[in-house]
Amino acid sequence: VENSLTRTALQQEKERLQVLLEVNAALLSSLDLQDLFPAISGFIRNAVKQEFASISLYDDATQTLRVYALDYPAHSELMSPGTILPLRESGPGMAFLERETKIMNREKLAEFHHARIDQLLAQGVQVGCCIPLITRKGPLGVLSLASRDPNAFQPQDVSLLKQVAAQVAIAVDNNRAYSEIAHLKDKLTEE
Questions:
Q1: Which residues pair with 129 in a beta bridge?
Q2: Please, how many CA atoms are within 13 Å of residue 12, restricted to the half-sphere of its CB?
Q3: Are 50 and 143 in contact (CB under 8 A)?
Q4: In contact, 81 and 67? CB cutoff 8 Å
Q5: How far apart are the first and last CA of the chain?
Q6: Quick one: pLDDT at residue 98?
Q7: pLDDT by residue (tens digit) across 12-30?
Q8: What's the whole-model pTM score?
Q9: What residue ranges of the chain have pLDDT lower than 70?
């Protein structure tokens, strides 16, 4: 019996490590996180039960979070890139402001009274998980996931998701740096 439990635990750990490798390889293959994100979400789905995933980035001009990339295959009309999420009345906003992972059950999600969250709840979402994207420069945004399984996002899942969020944060930071360099290069070319 112990051998079977150990074998199962090792298999689960192997699956989690495989997810990290796949996410890392995808992030290294392209700078376009919006196009890559559905694949990254699919890799996560191999180890963590979730039906909805998004990346929201902080918009300093409006002091809100703006959905940057998402994967919700069953209901793509629910939300789109550019959707604004408030900082004070949303799970992603709380995770961003407090710089800590937030796991919210259905009742906690319903307290936000936000149209997008109400739509997710109507689709049967039972639990949400929001992980801040933080680099050495500070918080950039939030990786958000939701599941119809009320037992999703156990501690070992959250540990994996934090590692994925760290990789995504680095990719976002690198993407911004690359864009800034390209902009400066274009500006120099014009002069």
A1: 103, 145
A2: 12
A3: no
A4: yes
A5: 72
A6: 96
A7: 778 878 777 887 887 777 7
A8: 0.85
A9: 1, 73-79
Give the C-alpha separation, 7 to 25, whole Å: 27
Can you read off the two tokens belonging to residue 108?
């906690």
Task: Identify the CA nearest to 175 among candidates 36, 30, 68.
Answer: 30
Contact 103, 129 (CB under 8 A): yes
Q: Cβ–Cβ contacts within 10 Å for residue 146, how many? A: 26
CA distance 146 to 92: 11
Q: Residue 153 and residue 151: Cα distance in Å, rounded?
A: 7
Looking at residue 73, what is its pLDDT?
Answer: 65
What is the residue whose two structure tokens read 């298999």? 11
Q: Are 22 and 13 in contact (CB under 8 A)?
A: no
Reference 142, options 177, 108, 94; nearest CA is 94
- Using N-to-C axis directions, what is the helix angle for 155-190 and 2-29, rounded to 10°? 10
Q: Residue 177 corresponds to which amino acid?
A: A
Distance, CA of 167 to chain centre: 11
